[in-house]
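User: For my dataset I need records formatted as: sequence, then structure tokens, nothing else. Please produce one.
Assistant:
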Amino acid sequence: MTTVPSTSTVPSTPAVPPTPALPSTSTVAVPAADARVLGLAHYAARGVLEHVLARHGLTFQEQIVLHAAATADAPRTPDDLVAEVRGSLKADPATLRATLGELLAKRLLVQDGAYLRPTDAGRELLAAARTELAPAAFRVWGGIPAGDLAAAGRVLALVTERANAELAALNA
């Protein structure tokens, strides 16, 4: 089963002290969900993430690859990581291999025989970025009713499944 990163790509954010829910400040009519609305939400959330990651010297793609290595149940080979992240990001394998090289050069991943493992520095960097991102993530996601989040999750999972099927058919 391929794991699809969340639109915000926020790996399990730590607890944030409760603050009042922020009301929407938008005066625009609420549009029906479609590809454009999904894309706008993704890029807005990704923009916040990339701003934080840049302060830690990481790119979005590096963070995704490093997170995949750090959260794996067992050590992963470079091919394993490329396949997993390619399935999620739909990125070119050569680009992902270059990203692995960048993470190795930054000493955030280390080669251990046939496997790649995150270093302590890599894990610490992910934790620091996650901690810095947590308040913004709370401001973005906080106050959204659980039922709305569950409905959005069901819709997004279905859209992902259907889009992956379309992409597979296009690549067949």
